[in-house]
């Protein structure tokens, strides 16, 4: 039995997800949501995303998808093709009894996995920052919103934002 894939991303109103391989906003609430949704799950990410985090995160298994056959990092699993990465994530999810596989970036990994995702957990960041990494264009008709909660900016959240959860619509 296959464990479903879900995407977790913070996306500005202009589609920006990062700049120069780093986060470009301070949203403490989004980081807490990230932790809540990924804890106990295998996480799939690209090498640059992993390097921006800088380490394996506790309570999760990290699979890094990279074309760099020399890449190694402590505490992570490395895959060189999407198929290998997904197979590894499936094995890890079964061992962990995880209900899903979290895809957490970056742009190329999102583009490759978007057709496979059953759910999207999107933080809509209501800002128009400059950036060099963008979430792929996607057909919102393929998904329905199952929940949306809006939040104002605050002392620990730089911009107003919305947590929006999508479920793939059966064709």
Describe this structure in words.
The chain has 171 residues and is an alpha/beta fold. The chain has one domain (5-168): Dihydrofolate Reductase, subunit A (3-Layer(aba) Sandwich), CATH 3.40.430. It contains 4 helices and 10 strands, in the order ββαβαββαβαββββ. The strands form 2 sheets. It has an 8-stranded mixed β-sheet, sandwiched between helices. A two-stranded antiparallel sheet has the order 2-8. Helix 2 (47-53) links the parallel strand 3 (42-46) and strand 4 (61-65). The longest helix is centred in the middle third of the chain and has 15 residues, at 82-96. The radius of gyration is 15 Å and the shape is globular. The model has no long low-confidence stretch (mean pLDDT 96).
Span between N and C termini? 21 Å
- Low-pLDDT runs: none
Q: What is the total tally of β strands?
A: 10
Number of helical segments with 4 or more residues: 4
Structure summarized in a few sentences:
This protein has 171 residues and is α/β, with parallel strands linked by helices. 23% of the residues lie in helices and 32% in strands.
